[in-house]
Amino acid sequence: MKEYSKKELRFIFNILKEKVGEHDPSGLLSMGAPKNEYFPELFRIMDDVKRDMSLEGFKEMTDKVFIECLEDCYDEQKLSAFSTDVYSVLKERKYVL
């Protein structure tokens, strides 16, 4: 992804890490999984995030990533809250529309 600088990518990854830790969409962290359990999903999200994404587009993309990676082992409300929280921070920083 060439849309973002290295500094911006670090920020995006840190926000993704923080928010996935807060929301734990599949409950893996609360069951004792390591903090890096969701890194494959977060890296895929980072590959697909674009500056011109709307909230709806961002949610669709994150839903797709989690569904493909975790199948039906996730909580829809937690995943939606994760996506909304991440998008809000990215929008505040002007990393998305």
How does this model look, in words?
By secondary structure, the protein is an all-alpha fold. The chain has one domain.
SSE blueprint:
Layout: H1 6-23, H2 39-48, H3 55-70, H4 76-92
Structural key phrases:
97 residues, 0% strand, mainly alpha, single chain, globular
* Largest sheet descriptor: none
Helix content: 55-70%
Assign the structural class, choosing from mainly alpha, mainly beta, alpha/beta, alpha+beta, or little secondary structure.
mainly alpha
Uncertain segments: none
Strand/helix succession:
HHHH
Query: Shape, please?
Result: globular
**What's the oligomerization state?**
single chain
Mean pLDDT: 92
Residue share in β-strands = under 5%
How many helix segments?
4
> For the CA atoms, what is the radius of gyration?
13 Å
How many structural units, i.e. domains?
A: 1
For the termini, the CA-CA separation is 17 Å
Q: TL;DR?
A:
It is built from 4 helices and no strands.
